[in-house]
Amino acid sequence: MSTYIKFQGFVEHLAHGVHNFDTDAITVALTNTAPDPALSTANTILSNITEISYTYCGSRVFPGNISIVRVGYPYEYKLGPDTPSYTFTVSASGGSVGPFRYGIIYNDTPSSPLNPLIAYYDYGSSITLNDGESILFDFDVDGIFIIL
Amino acid sequence: MATFNKFRDFKHMMAEKQHNLSSDQLMIALTNTVPVVTNTILANISEISYTNVVSTPVDRIISVVSSGQTSGIYKLVVSDMIITATGGAIPTFRYLVIYNDTSTSDKLIGWYDYGTINIPEGESIVFGFNGSNGVLTLT
Description:
The structure holds two protein chains of two kinds. Chain A is built from one helix and nine strands. Chain A is mainly beta. Chain A has one domain. In chain A, strand 3 and strand 4 form a beta hairpin. The two termini of chain B are 22 Å apart. Helix content of chain B is 5%, strand content 44%. The longest helix of chain B has 7 residues. The chains are: A mainly beta, B mainly beta. The interface between A and B is medium-sized, with 26 and 26 residues.
């Protein structure tokens, strides 16, 4: 079980109309360098992440849109991928991908700020996907995050 | 201290880019009918007549003091609102509703229950929004 860590600037972006989770392209970035969750709001953008090479990496865009589903006692909204079982797979094809330790969720659609960061997952140790291997992002019950 | 209640749809609409709490024009509405959490737009609120209402800031427009996050906690901090009865009494009201006047159809954000309020001609009331904790927070 990996650990979910929110970028602190995300909540400000959310309140300032940066994200449209119904239509924007939510994407995964991979890095082997520990992200700083306390980046200033203005710096909570993809250019501050040291990404790995994606030469042999398959699609990193969440298929379909993000669903916004009301759950629990009546003010909670869960956001997660639309795909069945709330899962999302990244695969290596033609060569290896990595090493990486952190999977970062960001929004690839906004231009100002450009590609704002949302959260990341720490897998605890570095991972390399060999040719033909995949890694599964499984959001099942909890989605990416919940707005209370 | 009155409790702030969020409309359910506000959180949904915030996740769909319908609110910019930093730059949009936020306003208050007054009503004597209890709001419902499933209300979504200003037309769902039975407003009182504002004929005798004079406010500071003017026109019931909320003055945003700050809209930002610290250590991952977002706060919307606004200045107090003074409502004065001018030219006659203000109709009885109990609830103060905050809505986004810039958003399509004036989407609702939340409301306070202050108990029954009557303001005779020449009298005022100050709504002291929480300056330290803000009107609302996101974590």
